[in-house]
Amino acid sequence: MATLKSYFKGLGTAWNSKRMTLLLYILLLIFTFTVIIPFFSVLKKETGYSMSVYPLLKNFDFTVYADFLQHSGKAVKPFVSIAIWLSVFYIFFGVFLSGGIIHIIYNQENKFSLKEFFAGCGNYILPFLRITIFSFILQVIIAILVYVPLMGYLDSLKETAESEATLVYTFLTGAAIHLILAAFVMLVTDYAKIMLVVNESKKSFVSFWLSFKFFFRYFFRTVFLYVLLLILPIAFATGYFLFSEHFAITSKQSFVIVVGVQQIFVLMRIWFKIWFYGSEISLLTGTLGIQKQTVSNEEWDVKALEIEEEEIEIDPDEL
After folding, report:
1. Global confidence as pTM
2. Which of the chain's termini has less CB crowding within 10 Å, N or C?
3. Which of 58, 4, 8, 13 is nearest to 278 (CA)?
4. How far apart are CA 249 and CA 260, in angstroms?
5. Other C-beta atoms within 10 Å of 172: how many?
6. Concatenated DSSP letters for 125-148?
7. Under a CB-based contact definition with an 8 Å cutoff, are residues 233 and 219 in contact?
8. Alpha carbons within 13 A on the beta-carbon side of 67
9. What is the C-alpha separation between 114 and 152, in angstroms, rounded?
């Protein structure tokens, strides 16, 4: 089955992309440390280097946060605006790296090199950014089309609903519809990026339209592959959530353990992302019959290089 073949081919791609996974992790780690280190230093300083900082890292506790902001709000305030700008930069950073990931998977057959990776990042940053902005606009439109009527319906339902459960289930139904439509847009966005690389094109909107047509023409293949790809990440995220809920941070040792588990989770997210792209590339190229042209080794025409004996005249005096 084409979908299962693409699924396992993507798994093989992710398994063979250890160097790229490590590079992405290091880049993300550097980006994170530029914010975490100074922010955590402020937390430690404002809490008098006591262990009272650790409750802030567990779950949301309004009492702890209110007390902390009352005494140390001015010290933390600059980080709010910085966090907003860094969030925007993080999105840009992710779009930039996705060009290199898709370029390496499709063109290099996992023969990773820094030169080729960053070449792919630079070549596709602008068209990928246009696709991302267009996708974001679509997501906003979908949210408006779902939640504005939903809120109006819930407001009218308050008078006739037998219980609050009816309102909750109605809202959850609307939220599920939004989630499904948002996932569809994300899938079309992924395949649009892949089509740009496959066609070596910079026409973002043309690629988005072609991706849209591909998605609905092979709807069951793309959705089935997407569902398969979500199984392990959801299971892994659930395990991480259960761990974070039941493992309390009470000391430096427990803090180190939690940070270690978090880094494994980040590393696996990167690995899953490569798996996603690898499987999607395989499905698109396999379904459309696209084959990457490879440069064959040069072959010598031996007969053309042969010299016939009668063409060689040897003078005995020269021997």
Report:
1. 0.78
2. C
3. 13
4. 13
5. 10
6. HHHHHHHHHHHHHHHHHHHHHHHH
7. no
8. 10
9. 53
Look up residue 27 and give its two tokens.
């880049």
Nearest alpha-carbon partner for 123 in 18, 193, 22, 185 = 193
pLDDT one-digit tens code per residue, 75-104? 556 666 666 777 777 788 889 999 999 999
User: Per-residue pLDDT tens for 168-194?
Assistant: 888 899 999 999 999 999 999 999 999
Of 264, 236, 256, 238, the residue nearest 57 (C-alpha) = 256
Longest dimension (CA), the chain: 120
Q: Whole-number mean pLDDT of the chain? A: 80
Distance CA 101, CA 277 (A): 8
CA 40 – CA 29 distance, rounded (Å): 15
Amino acid at 219: F
* Cβ atoms 25, 266 nearer than 8 A: yes
Written as six digits, the tokens of 317 are: 């005096």
